[in-house]
Design goal:
Layout: E1 2-7, H1 21-35, E2 39-47, E3 51-55, E4 58-64, H2 72-91, E5 95-99, E6 114-118, H3 122-129, H4 135-147, E7 150-153, H5 156-166, E8 172-174, H6 190-193, E9 202-206, H7 218-228, E10 233-237, H8 250-256, H9 260-264, E11 266-269, H10 277-283, E12 286-289, H11 298-305, E13 309-312, E14 329-330, H12 336-348, H13 350-367, H14 370-385
Parallel strand pairs: 1-2, 1-5, 2-4, 5-6, 6-7, 7-8, 9-10, 9-12, 10-11, 12-13, 13-14
Antiparallel strand pairs: 3-4
C-alpha cells in the first residue's frame, strides 16, 4: 500500500515544536508499515519552513506555516490541500490519515480517501476537563469527521465520548496504539549508557507539565511520600505548559505546593530527544501518571513495556490498558492518601515492583506490541482502499 499521514508533530530533530502522543504513535505505526514493505509519506504542517527529507524509509514533508490577513484558518488549509494533492497525484498515494485534533482536514478536498484517527479532539478534552471550547474548533472537528471516509479510535472510551459529542452514527473502528517492544524494554545494556548507575528510590513523571495530566495532584502526594520515605526523589521530564486557568507556568504552580523537604528532592528535566526518554524510564523505581484526560497514552505503554511499576489514574481509558493490582495500580488522582500509599508500597517492596513490572511487560507484548497493531491497521486500510468498508 501507498499511504500518507498528515500530522501537527513528528519526533525528529528537523521538525519544529514539541512532540506528544500523536507524533510518537504515528512514528511507531509508520515505522512498522514501511518494515512490512508499504510506502509511507508524512506531511507535517505548521513548520518553520518547507523541507523534504527522509527518516529511514519514511518520506517527510515539512510544510511551512503561512499567515494571512484574513481567514487564515481557511486559506492555510487550502494551501495544505494543494500541496498534498500534488504529492498524492505524483506518488499515487492511496489513502491519507489525519488526527481529529482541531479538524485539520475540514474544507480540504483531497484526491484520495481520508481516514481520521481519534487521539482526542479539542472537543473531547474540553469535555473531560469541563471547560468551554471555541465554537470554530468544534465546527472544524465536526466537519472533518463528517467528511472522513472512515474513523479509527485509539480506545473504546474515546470513540464513545466522541460519538456523544458530535452525534456520530457511523461505525468507529477501535485500534489501540502500539509500541515497539524491542526498543522499549528493560535492557541490561542501558547500564552501560548510564555508566553503571543503579536504579534508585526514584519516582518519575514524564509527559507535558500541564494541569490535565494531573501534575497538580502530585505535590500533596509527594509530600506524603517524603514524610514516610525522606530519601525518595521525584523527577519531572517534559515541557512546561502555561496553565489554562491561572496563566502561570504549571511548573511554578507545582513547586508552590511542595513542602520544603519535597522541593529539595524534586528534579526537573526539560524535554529530551525521544530516543533518550528510555534512559530516564529505566532509572525510575516507580512511574506516576495521574492524568485526568487521555485517549490512549503512549507514556503508559512505554513505561509498561520497560517493565516498570506504574501508579496511574482510573478514568475511562485506563481500564483498557491497566489491570489494577496486576499490571499496575490505578486510582483517582484526587485520592491523594491512597495514591501516596501505593507509591510507598511499591518503593518499599522490590519484589512487588518486579512482579508488577513483569506482568505489565507481558500485557504489552500480548496486546499492544507493534506487530499486532500493524496487522490490524493493514487490514483496515486495505478495506478502505478496496472500498469494502
Amino acid at each position: 500500500m501507498n499511504l500518507a499521514f498528515l500530522l501537527p508533530e513528528y519526533p525528529h530533530p528537523k521538525v519544529s515544536a514539541h512532540c506528544g502522543g500523536i507524533g510518537t504513535s504515528a512514528k511507531n505505526l509508520a515505522t512498522g508499515l514501511v518494515m512490512n514493505a508499504h510506502k509511507l509519506t508524512i506531511f507535517v504542517y505548521g513548520q518553520d519552513k518547507d523541507e523534504l527529507f527522509y527518516d529511514g524509509l519514511i518520506e517527510i514533508h515539512k510544510i511551512k506555516h503561512l499567515r494571512y490577513p484574513y481567514f487564515g484558518w481557511f486559506l492555510y488549509r487550502k494551501h495544505l490541500q494543494n500541496y498534498i494533492n500534488e504529492v498524492i497525484v505524483a506518488q499515487k498515494i492511496q489513502l491519507l490519515e489525519a488526527p481529529d485534533w482541531t479538524g485539520i482536514t475540514a474544507f480540504m478536498k483531497l484526491k484520495c480517501p481520508i481516514v481520521i484517527r481519534l487521539h482526542g479532539s479539542d472537543a473531547y478534552f474540553c469535555k473531560l476537563e469541563e471547560r468551554k471550547q471555541k465554537l470554530k474548533n468544534f465546527i472544524f472537528e465536526k466537519c472533518a469527521l463528517k467528511k472522513a471516509k472512515a474513523i479509527i479510535s485509539v480506545s473504546n472510551f474515546t470513540a464513545n465520548k466522541t460519538k456523544q459529542i458530535f452525534k456520530i452514527t457511523k461505525n468507529i473502528e477501535i485500534i489501540y496504539n502500539g509500541i515497539d517492544t524491542d526498543n522499549f524494554k528493560d535492557n541490561i545494556n542501558l547500564k552501560e549508557i548510564l555508566n553503571g548507575k543503579e536504579i534508585g528510590n526514584d519516582i518519575l513523571y514524564f509527559g507535558s507539565i500541564i494541569r490535565k495530566k494531573g501534575v497538580l495532584e502530585l505535590p500533596d502526594i509527594f509530600n506524603r511520600v517524603i514524610e514516610k520515605l525522606p530519601q525518595t526523589k521525584l523527577t519531572f521530564l517534559g515541557k512546561d505548559v502555561l496553565d489554562n486557568i491561572t496563566g502561570k507556568p504549571t511548573l511554578d504552580l507545582f513547586k508552590e505546593l511542595l513542602s520544603k523537604k519535597a522541593l529539595n528532592n524534586f528534579i526537573y528535566i526539560e524535554q529530551v530527544p525521544y530516543n533518550e526518554v528510555i534512559t530516564y524510564i529505566y532509572r525510575a523505581s516507580v512511574v506516576v501518571l495521574p492524568s485526568f484526560a487521555e485517549a490512549f497514552p503512549m507514556t503508559w505503554l512505554e513505561a509498561m513495556a520497560m517493565s516498570k511499576a506504574l501508579v496511574t489514574s482510573n478514568i475511562g481509558w485506563a481500564e483498557e490498558i491497566i489491570i489494577d493490582g496486576v499490571t499496575g495500580y490505578s486510582l483517582h488522582p484526587k485520592n491523594h492518601l491512597d495514591y501516596a500509599n501505593k507509591i510507598i508500597e511499591l518503593l518499599q517492596n522490590k519484589e512487588l515492583r518486579n512482579k508488577i513490572g513483569a506482568n505489565a511487560r507481558m500485557h504489552i507484548n500480548n496486546n499492544f506490541a507493534l506487530k499486532i497493531i500493524i496487522y490490524k491497521n493493514e487490514q483496515f486500510y486495505q478495506k478502505i482502499i478496496n472500498n469494502d468498508f
